[in-house]
């Protein structure tokens, strides 16, 4: 009988796996030796068992755990295998979405840092074309313009809690925007309207309801100090009036970067203040 069997070492070498792996498969009930010598305890396998071993390896490469493989093989139910693979397929898609979100965030961070390095001095005004963007946010429960940075930090925590409820990764919450309605901005009333993240169109494809910030020409000013926002925003409004630009939408303060690499208190931020404008022809 033993002449028709393969010792565990030969079975392992034939299938390019280790002897401990075959022992583990035996322990888990995945692949039992065809014969175990009662005197030596040596394990022997039949060549026909390669088919089952191939299936185990294949299912592992599909991402199934050993316990899932054992469950499927023991029940010999193809529908169970299909169900397990469907679950694994959804898990893989979720991982892909998470990696894509990280990739998008890394690209945004690189672009923001490069913009920071090449930006003009604080308070310099410019006219820029900004492409279409997508945002998700919540109404501001308080006005940080009158209450200060602590109020802003509280609003940021509120936003992050809501983001978690929507299934967003925290990595989204490092590119933040706040807005003031066009009416309030033009009237010189600094009342925070919304706080939001800049998201990707892929988030919209994932079933999240996003708002669109249309592309167009924007009057902008850059600054690197939270406390200078109101003064720079007033300068931005005066710039639009002086040049005859028609403000066509809400004012946005965009946090381009918020890396506290140089100091820890207060929060370091590089900001782009912006309003969409149109021109009289």
Describe the protein:
This protein is of the alpha+beta class. It folds into two domains: 2-76, Multidrug-efflux Transporter Regulator, Chain: A, Domain 2 (Orthogonal Bundle); 107-279, Multidrug-efflux Transporter 1 Regulator Bmrr, Chain A (Alpha-Beta Barrel), CATH 3.20.80. Helix content is 45%, strand content 23%. The protein has helices spanning 8-14, 19-27, 50-61, 66-75, 78-118, 144-147, 149-166, 182-186, 201-205, 229-243; strands at residues 5-7, 35-36, 43-46, 125-130, 133-139, 176-180, 194-199, 211-213, 216-223, 245-247, 251-257, 270-279. The strands form two sheets. Strands 4, 5, 6, 7, 8, 9, 10, 11 and 12 form a nine-stranded antiparallel sheet that branches. The chain has a three-stranded antiparallel sheet with strand order 1-3-2. The model has no long low-confidence stretch (mean pLDDT 86).
The largest sheet is:
9 strands, antiparallel
- CATH homologous superfamily grouping of the largest domain: Regulatory factor, effector binding domain
* DSSP strand tally: 12
| Stretches with pLDDT under 50, minimum 5 residues | none
Please report the first level of CATH classification, the CATH class of the largest domain.
Alpha Beta
- What's the total helix number? 10
CATH topology of the largest domain, what is it called? Answer: Multidrug-efflux Transporter 1 Regulator Bmrr, Chain A
Number of domains: 2
Report the structural category. Answer: alpha+beta
Radius of gyration: 30 Å
Strand content: 15-25%
Averaging pLDDT over every residue, what do you get?
A: 86
The topology string of helices and strands comes to: EHHEEHHHEEHHEHEHEEHEEE
* Head-to-tail CA distance between termini: 97 Å
Q: Do you know the CATH architecture of the largest domain?
A: Alpha-Beta Barrel
Q: Any idea what the shape is?
A: rod-shaped
Helix content: 40-55%
């Amino acid at each position: 009988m033993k002449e028709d069997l393969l010792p565990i070492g030969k079975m392992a070498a034939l299938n390019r796996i280790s002897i401990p792996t075959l022992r583990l498969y035996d322990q888990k009930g995945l692949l039992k030796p065809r014969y175990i010598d009662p005197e030596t305890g040596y394990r022997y396998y039949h060549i026909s068992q390669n088919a089952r071993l191939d299936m185990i390896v294949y299912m592992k490469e599909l991402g199934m755990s050993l316990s899932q493989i054992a469950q499927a093989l023991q029940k010999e139910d193809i529908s169970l295998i299909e169900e397990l693979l469907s679950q694994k397929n959804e898990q893989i898609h979720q991982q892909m979405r998470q990696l894509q979100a990280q990739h998008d965030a890394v690209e945004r961070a690189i672009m923001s840092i490069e913009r920071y390095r090449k930006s003009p001095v604080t308070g310099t005004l410019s006219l820029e074309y900004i492409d279409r963007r997508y945002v998700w946010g919540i109404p501001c429960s308080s006005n940080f313009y009158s209450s200060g940075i602590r109020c802003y930090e509280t609003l940021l925590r509120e936003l992050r809690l809501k983001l978690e409820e929507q299934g967003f990764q925290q990595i989204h919450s490092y590119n933040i925007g706040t807005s003031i309605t066009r009416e309030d901005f033009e009237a010189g009333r600094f009342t925070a309207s919304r706080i939001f993240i800049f998201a990707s169109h892929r988030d919209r494809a994932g079933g999240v309801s996003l708002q669109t910030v249309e592309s167009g020409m924007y009057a902008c000013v850059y600054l690197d100090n939270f406390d200078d926002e109101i003064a720079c925003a007033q300068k931005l409004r005066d710039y639009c009036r002086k040049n005859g630009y028609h403000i066509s939408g809400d004012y946005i303060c965009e946090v381009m970067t918020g890396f506290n690499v140089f100091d820890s208190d207060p929060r370091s931020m590089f900001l782009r203040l912006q309003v969409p404008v149109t021109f009289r022809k």
